[in-house]
């Protein structure tokens, strides 16, 4: 294997960041430029939203249920088992709903976008599109970005609700808690900053999934092997970015919105 | 050749309007490997110029540079009077609509049917569906593939895909056509069918074209045949006839042009490399 100098590696990373930023900015600027591809956006929304629904429902339900189960032991020790609803609700809405939905959708869709656009790139279909007078960022990137951003928001809301349902099932059947008590503590504990955090995170993560998937797809080179590499890199980069940005965004909101 | 006027991006440059394509001292390198070195040539209106050279000599790069898919490191490129490498990508999309390009591997959109592929440009321009259907059928009839209209590219043979790509390129009646090895890897019969289509496009619609090819027999067929509209087929130009087959040849070697002229000049060239190439 050829050894590369650290300068080359840093240069390559900086170039990739520059290209990614340019592509993302172009895709956002396309929101106010014509033509707009409504059909493509709806098709992507269907593929990302409806297609990811089963996996998000299963994940959300299981996490809500296991959260209630795991926390019951600790809560019981402090005589606070009645707070199970509050714990599940805050954790799901603020953290686990957005992050886990983001990771699930990232695994399914950023890879899908990277492989689809990557295949188009290596078979010159992207060049053909440009030669035919169509801007690939308008036709391919912007619709995926819009669809991923808004569909992840909806999927996260569904995951939160299903997670609360999973927690309720465990609280009712395994912990013997009263349903009213569970739902009232779950509902009352949620304040505006919690909901704001829980609803803005998926917008951020959806943008990451769409832009990273498209960026790696459009940068693919080297035939089918290159497409495979782009697909893997897209999933890894999107997942890592979601987890890292989640930490900083949470900290930022905690400081500015005085959330505890 | 030197074009001294400072071009305005997007605006037609008067000195180049009467030419279809002008390359003015163009150079490009990929990863420090020089692919084109100070290349200059012109394509006049209605002419078909065939680009010859060994693999990796920069022929396909020239085609991509014509419509701004690849930007040169140095030099100027003019297409229909527009200074291509001074234009932004956004401005180039309008100019590219006047050009049809046939890619080496066809580059058909594999998730679209033949109808949708051929109609792609018209759909993007929001042409009426009835007119789209009529023009798609007309273009497919031209390449004799009307029966494949509802099929997907994966269901077609290599030669058929190449012909669909030609139909997609000609549907908007472009002023310029760029063919990247349209007969590569095809059997002689299919190759002749495709060359006949290119001759028909040249002689019936008088479209200017740049054609990259490795197949010399195809080049000589293009230069020595014309399209007989009455008989609806390609015929050899009879000796002593005044029928024109506006074709020329351009040969590249190590990034430089070593020949730019007619078929007559090519076959009578005293250059050893050229003689070996055409032997």
Number of strands of chain B: 12
In order across it, which strands form the biggest sheet of chain B?
6-7-8-3-11-12
Order of helices and strands of chain A: HHHHHHHH
Percent strand of chain B equals 25-35%
Summarize the structure.
Chain A is mostly helical. Chain A has helices spanning 6-29, 38-77, 84-122, 125-131, 136-173, 179-188, 192-218, 223-256.
What keyword list fits this structure?
A: 260 residues; mainly alpha; 84% helix; elongated; B: 279 residues; alpha/beta; globular; disordered N terminus
Descriptive notes:
The complex is a heterodimer of chains A (260) and B (279). With 260 residues, chain A is mainly alpha-helical. Chain A has one domain. In chain A, helix 2 (38-77) packs parallel to helix 5 (136-173), helix 3 (84-122) runs antiparallel to helix 8 (223-256) and helix 5 packs across helix 7 (192-218). Chain A is built from 8 helices and no strands. Chain A is elongated. The mean pLDDT of chain A is 92. By secondary structure, chain B is an alpha/beta fold. Chain B has a domain at 99-173. Chain B has helices at 59-66, 89-96, 114-124, 129-142, 158-170, 188-205, 216-224, 263-267, 272-278; strands spanning 19-30, 33-44, 48-52, 74-79, 82-83, 99-102, 176-180, 208-212, 225-228, 233-236, 247-253, 256-261. In chain B, the strands form 3 sheets. Chain B has a 6-stranded mixed beta sheet, with helices on both faces. In chain B, strand 4 (74-79) and strand 5 (82-83) form a beta hairpin. In chain B, helix 3 crosses helix 4. Residues 1-7 of chain B have low confidence and may be disordered.
